[in-house]
Write a structure and sequence with these properties.
mainly alpha, 1 helix, rod-shaped
Length: 113
């Protein structure tokens, strides 16, 4: 086996190149990769939080809509009950007014006769 000065020089150059890369190039690359991974993890966590908030907001909206429907039903029932009361009062008042007018007409007829 013939080892000459060129092989030793190339080996030393390779060692220096690897050392240089490990010292100055590899750490910034690792840092950039780690920062990117952290950004991705943060983005996924934010997406999960957003999804949870969306589900929560949807549940709250459904609850509010349900309460509004119940209130609307209650208001309609109250309005219908009040309308029925007003109609009943009107019928009662109408009957009384009819009786009063009938009595007045009879009294007028009796006075004329």
């Amino acid at each position: 086996m013939d080892i000459n000065l060129t092989l030793i020089g190339q080996t030393i150059a390779m060692i220096v190149f690897v050392w240089f890369c490990m010292k100055f190039i590899w750490p910034p690359l690792l840092q950039a990769i780690e920062e990117r991974q952290q950004k991705i993890e943060d983005g996924l966590a934010a997406a999960d939080r957003g999804q949870e908030k969306l589900v929560q907001a949807q549940a709250e909206a459904d609850e509010i809509i349900s309460e509004a429907r119940q209130q609307a039903t209650s208001i309609l029932n109250q309005a219908n009950a009040r309308a029925n009361e007003i109609v009943a009062e009107g019928k009662a008042d109408g009957g009384k007014e009819r009786e009063r007018q009938l009595a007045a007409a009879k009294a007028e007829i009796e006075q004329e006769a």
